[in-house]
Design a protein that fits this description.
about 300 residues; alpha+beta; Phosphorylase Kinase, domain 1; Transferase(Phosphotransferase), domain 1; 2 domains; 6-stranded antiparallel β-sheet; two-stranded antiparallel sheet; 9 helices; about 20% strand
């Protein structure tokens, strides 16, 4: 679980026998905070994610996220540098030390361009999408699914290299549901851990006899691609207006008419956004289609707009 962590008055912390200087806060979510710290031993910047743990179940979930990180050593999955558990009175905090990625998230880039009435070029979309797919394939090949893929969970590193992060919702890719009680348990879990506007249709109304697999991520991948193409996710506005996303995802998606992107890219998007998950392609098929549509996608250089 890592070595004892101490905080000194000058903003120095120690994790696994290495010291880090607190620089500034980067952001916060519902149950976690992210700080920028600098390694005293190497001068590198890191992102320190602090997860608030109110009880034993929270601690278990935080350690699950650590375990998921430890499964991967892949250029498109964010690396966990170190971690520890810190006791704070009756509560605990799980501290995850992660690389600091200056480019921010994919959503930061999409939003910044949208505010300037600009969009990602097709070359950039292919390149970023290819990297996301490689990261997903690494996860799926280990028998897991991400379950919360969205633009805010994709970091953009140097040269637009995408890195999948926030692995706390990951679980086994294949879930066999037998019975109403299990179906409700899966549905309740998804409601808590899978962002509603990127959640696959099969997770809204879970059948009492079904198999859910890694193709929940393919639906979410389609939503991410849509956001790169059109500046927002296909169901973001529906959620913001308070309308039913659960109802909206049961209908075939309508792709806005545009001359900005090729028919091949639009067809790729349509192939991901299939309501019946058994008819969706697996990640290997998506990668094959990507590489046929854009043969040099892996080695191309990208230029930010």
């Amino acid at each position: 679980m890592g070595s004892t962590l101490c905080i000194c008055s000058r903003g120095v912390i120690t994790i696994e026998n290495k010291r880090y200087l607190f620089i500034q806060k980067l952001g916060e979510g519902g149950f976690s905070y992210v700080d920028l710290v600098e390694g005293v031993h190497d001068g590198r910047f890191y992102a320190l994610k602090r997860i608030l743990c109110h009880d034993r179940e929270d601690r278990k979930e935080a350690l699950h996220e650590v375990e998921m990180h430890r499964l991967f050593n892949h250029p498109n999955v964010l690396t966990l540098e170190a971690h520890c558990m810190m006791e704070k009175g009756p509560k605990w905090e799980a501290w995850l030390l992660l690389p600091f990625v200056r480019g921010g998230t994919l959503w930061n880039e999409v939003e910044a361009l949208r505010d300037k009435n600009a969009f990602l070029s097709e070359d950039r979309i292919f390149y970023i999408l290819h990297g996301i797919c490689l990261g997903l394939k690494a996860i799926h090949d280990q028998g897991y699914a991400h379950r919360d893929l969205k633009p805010t969970n994709v970091l953009l590193g140097d040269d637009d290299q995408p890195l999948l992060m926030d692995l706390g919702s990951m679980n086994h890719a294949r879930i066999e549901v037998n019975g109403t009680r299990q179906a409700m348990a899966v549905q309740d879990w998804a409601a808590q851990r899978c962002t509603i506007s990127y959640r696959a249709p099969e997770l809204f109304n879970v059948s009492s006899s079904c198999v859910i697999d890694d193709r929940t991520d393919i639906w979410s991948l389609g939503c991410v691609l849509y956001s790169m193409m059109f500046g927002e996710g296909p169901y973001d506005m529906i959620f913001q207006k308070g309308d039913s996303v659960a109802l909206a995802v049961q209908n075939s998606i309508s792709i806005p008419e545009n001359n900005r992107y090729s028919q091949g890219l639009q067809s790729l998007l349509s192939s991901m956004m299939v309501v019946n998950h058994m008819e969706r392609p697996h990640i290997s098929t998506i990668l094959n289609h990507l590489e046929v549509l854009h043969p040099n996608v892996d080695g191309q250089a990208t230029t930010r707009i």
